[in-house]
Design goal:
It is built from 24 helices and 26 strands. About 5% of the residues have low confidence. The structure holds 5'-O-[(L-methionyl)-sulphamoyl]adenosine (MSP). 5'-O-[(L-methionyl)-sulphamoyl]adenosine binds next to strand 2, helix 1, helix 7 and strand 13.
Amino acid sequence: MGRFYVTTPIYYVNDVPHLGTAYTTIVADALRRFHQLIGDETFLLTGTDEHGLKIERAAQAQGLAPKAFTDEISARFRDAWPKLEVTADRFIRTTDADHEAFVQDLWKKIEARGDLYEGDYEGWYCVGCESLKTEKELEQPGNICPLHKAPVERVKEKSYFFRLEKWQEPLLDFYARHPDFIQPETRRNEVLSFVKSGLKDLSVSRTTFTWGIPVPGNEKHVMYVWFDALSNYRSALGAEHARFWSPNAKVVHLVGKDILRFHAVFWPAFLLSAGYREDEIPDVVYAHGFLTVDGQKMSKALRNAVDPLKLAAELGPDVLRYHLLRAVAFGQDGDFDHAALLERYNADLGKNLGNLLSRVLGLCAKMSHGKHPDDDPATDVELDAELGKEIASCLHNARKYWLEIQPHLALEQTFKLASAANAYVDHAAPWTEARKLNTKRVEKILSRLLRVLEATSVMIWPAMPQKSDEMRAQLGLSPVRPSVGADVWPAELPPIRAGLALAQATPLFPTYDADKQKELLDRLAPKPAIEAKDAKDARDAKAQKTAKTEETADGATTIAYEDFAKVDLRVGLVKTCEKVPKKDKLLRLTVDLGEPSPRTIVAGLALSFSPEQLVGKRVIVVANLAPREFGSADFGEGGKSKKEKLVSQGMLLASGPSEDLRLATIDGECAPGARLK
Ligand code: MSP
């Protein structure tokens, strides 16, 4: 018996559960179920990541206090997972009191080791990543975060620093001694070269907002959200740490490739610094790839359109689980294709496994009085021996792949066994043997097949627990309910259960005909993604036509509400304003949008306003416009002048000709950053 502790990332509560987060959570649950089957004691952890600037702002945007906001969204995650047949041993929230106490204690341990010091931080911060960025990491022009495709913010504040640089060599030694720590191999190589290229001390506290865990002894600082978040893996265990954070437990963190670095570099460094021994560092950080949907990147709009809970409610959670586990090679990017899901459903589940079950039960009803017949292994023929070999190999390989965290391959082996059994029915032809009155042969064939089905019902349990139960009920078997210490993964065919009464066959996976498939696609898949090119062209042509007929009085075309909703309009407060040398029309402003540092905005206002007229004014800013470059200009005086790029991180709204512009503004003392709706 071993111990297996598997974690998902804790999810930010600025979003609701989507297919990406459902994916990791389902993989974690399937792995844990496999480990239960082999008799391991297991612990599955998931939860929500609730502190930090991103969440503080998301709460503000909804007009809620951060805790009220996080309570609401966290509950959506907690309620979602059981609907996907995921059972967690703990659902942690980083606002839980025991977690906060643990993190403060961890901080103190690291501080006592001399690995924290106070300093000033100045640099770029991506709120989307909740991470500082080096200039090298940003896309130009406009200092854009390559992951979030949005401008980063300039941060300048007092901060505690963690001596990450000091841990560079110990980390490299650790990776060398634990080659399985970072998986898959390609990701391991990326991390290794990142660490070898030199680690810099890490800013681990913030002073410009308050939504975080206070730094012990200096409450002006809140801890960096990743310091807080990573600690959840250890804090969540509480007293269970003795069993699950010990050398004889296997600890596996499943993460997306975008957050590998935090887990593979910062997390072990924090633990080593806090005095954890090397054998108390997690065993595996496995980075999986990103999912696209019907070939498209999962933008926020698309993510919301593909709701895993809706899919699970419509198709059954097991069907969604199976498709996600089988269709995506774990560790690589993958596509969630609705049409492929339905095809796979029909082929693997309906025509292969489902058909095998109904076929065999139907034959048993006719040929063995609906009972499991007897079988004398001494009378096996070559065909039986071949099936025997296939069974042994599929059982062995599937087990190996589950252990190697390759669910797609484990399931491939599982369905290979079902195909082999279907082929065996065809070749063994029990109906012909029955006509020849070869009763013993008929019984052997049916018994063999029932035992393959029983083995398969165990093999599918990690992926499809409900369907496994249903299948077993038809086979006259009780549901798989693993217990610690009992390895029930079959090494060979289960025993002959002569005389066991079988139930009537009911289709486990009724196949979808073309009409039903179309109906499901229309209902479940986001429209543009499932349209064939012809249909899309026709739609585009129609849209153009409609747009023309929907011109408003002054000739402008209408747009859909969703298009308008994409524009992020905010109240800005002008902090500074100056003329741009040699550019008659341009002013360069810094505008407070409620973010840690003001944005630079370049606007063609100079013919209508002097800089002094604008400072202190409230303006309306298009805040999510891609940054725009206006060339460069020499700022400063004479010999001290400096060439600077003119990049505008937003646009002001105004009306009128250049020399008589009127600025759009807002009544009263509206807070900078307030959204217009
Ligand atoms: N809160 C941090 C994790 C802290 S763990 C100590 C976080 N949260 S997240 O909600 O933004 O993302 C959670 C996970 O979802 C990440 O592993 C990320 O890779 C994953 N995914 C987000 N979009 C995804 C896809 N399109 N496809 C697959 N997974 C993706 O990061």
